[in-house]
């Protein structure tokens, strides 16, 4: 069995979630290669070569892959696909964007967002916002799979893979990159943080998210939000946790002024310890919280910050 | 020197293009998002008997976007299509009441993978020749997030997935996408495929007169088996189980108690 994993990166840094996807690949078993597609991404290649369990790093360093446009990346992966039985990517926005294109071009069904490997052709994945767990067998000869990173541990980074430079540089020419508006933050990534504190509609406005920042600073936490908070314009979209936002599973998740809709729970209920701060004792968030405080968040947050 | 007349031709073509821009919106019938599903006792699937069904929320946003393009004079016709058994006509009628002009049901009761759906939609695209196809980014039942991208690959068209803003500009469409780091804007040549994210728009409600009017709008039914697509299953659903239940915890009375528990009982803070 040979497995190709698409490395998730921003041309500077290999995302830690790729290390978790390698663990998922090891559960399938086989010779594992990483593909780094980008432009001026040599630091990513160095990091990729150290990922344990990877025997080879394929590098496509070309302007065509700078922004990892789905049209171009899918053609690149298609050209390499002949040599592999399994093609995997992390279920983040880049992988979600191009992988189904690869699957369609290969004429195979994609298995999205797996949380466990049962055997080389059978995988476990959440459906209905995590309210049911499906065991799915792939009947295609080649497998195209995206992986929910929070469900797997990271491999170590003490490997030394061979690096192979590719000459591919296909630009489909139908799409072009215009601009990025990325949120700059000194805090850890939502997906990587061991503590996440999230605010919901109960925060009332964006200014009040400052009350979470003091606590986040003390705990080294990332800050998240419910969709209602994002929709109301309190905070940017990349902070949304949930079924259709980011999936997190930190050691500690603190939900503040969040009711606990199933779509929100889908993104955080695998956290190790959940704390809920809500003034409504009936809020569904308390059904999943290990520790709840029924109180006004505007009283609780300043006190919590001072006592940490 | 020759740039003047050339630009004129460009403008003319553009006007023609805009006047005839057809938008195709594939919609899926799914469980209503407020309903919490239950798994069947025999673990064969979830139980959808007597459950409230609706248009997939992301598809509703797609319909709204298409209708707004028409209202703005950018699109000339909005065609909705759903693949499923007769019951999905209910969702097609809803889409017609929301402002779509015409509906197509691709009739099948087969269990389809997103790949099959994309292949059937590919046939509809070949027939209808839309300038823009707007799909939802994800079905809230399968949570696949695949069909739009697959359709884009099969048709060889560019894609703008997870869109929070769509601006048609002559022979191009600019799509602002919700990505992990924030927002990314791409320019796609038309025809193109777009999939919607939640913040693209807020769908309207269908008014009673529009619901009445929708009953008279055309709804064509085509058999999936007539479209020449191999619908042999590519996946086998072996089992569906309920998720591990979380034990509800305790309610603490004070912040001091909370901090004490987190330190000494849960040991998640120092
Ligand atoms: C297709 C679809 C996908 C979705 N995806 C997501 C997703 O990915 N993520 C997501 O989060 N949502 C998602 N949603 C939305 C979800 O259904 C809920 O609407 C949303 O999560 C509610 O956010 P909230 O809990 O902040 O707001 P509300 O439900 O309004 O809850 C606010 C809570 O704050 C409490 N509160 C108010 N004031 C105070 C105070 N002073 N002190 C303490 N508590 C207070 C209230 O008691 C209440 O419980 C999705 C919906 C759909 C249809
Ligand atoms: N049976 C179907 N009929 C019409 N459109 C569908 C169907 N299934 C999926 N789609 C479209 O594809 C989108 C993404 O679905 P999925 O890939 O299943 O998550 C949906 O939001 C719809 O726009």
TrEMBL record, chain A:
SMART domains: ETF (SM00893)
Recorded GO MF terms: electron transfer activity; flavin adenine dinucleotide binding
GO BP annotation list: fatty acid beta-oxidation using acyl-CoA dehydrogenase
InterPro entries linked: DHS-like_NAD/FAD-binding_dom, ETF_a/b_N, ETF_a/FixB, ETF_alpha_N, ETF_asu_C, ETF_asu_C_CS, Rossmann-like_a/b/a_fold
Note on how the cofactor is bound: Binds 1 FAD per dimer.
Origin superkingdom: Bacteria
Pfam families: ETF (PF01012), ETF_alpha (PF00766)
Alphabetic keyword roster: Electron transport, FAD, Flavoprotein, Transport
Residues involved in FAD binding: 201, 226-227, 240-244, 257-264, 278
Occurrences of domain Electron transfer flavoprotein alpha/beta-subunit N-terminal (ranges): 3-181
The protein's required cofactors: FAD
Function text: The electron transfer flavoprotein serves as a specific electron acceptor for other dehydrogenases. It transfers the electrons to the main respiratory chain via ETF-ubiquinone oxidoreductase (ETF dehydrogenase).
Subunit structure: Heterodimer of an alpha and a beta subunit.
Family: Belongs to the ETF alpha-subunit/FixB family.
Protein name, UniProt field: Electron transfer flavoprotein subunit alpha
Name of the encoding gene: etfA
